[in-house]
Specification:
Length: 63
């Protein structure tokens, strides 16, 4: 089977805030699911002092 992959990057709340906006994340997940995309991986990107500066979301769907 062949797949199409889509990525999205969600940034944390700010320089000193290491949390991701949960509402923004849930909205993006809902949007991508209506497009037939399935979340397959979440990769944290480390920033200042090892804190999470963003997360990379990887989605896939069959071609």
């Amino acid at each position: 089977m062949r797949w199409q992959y889509i990525t999205d990057l969600i940034h944390s709340g700010g320089f000193f805030s290491m949390s991701i906006d949960r509402g923004k994340l849930e909205s993006l997940l809902a949007e991508r699911s209506t497009e037939g995309l399935e979340l397959v991986s979440v990769i944290p990107n480390l920033g200042y002092r090892g804190g999470m500066s963003s997360v990379l979301l990887i989605f896939k769907r069959p071609l």
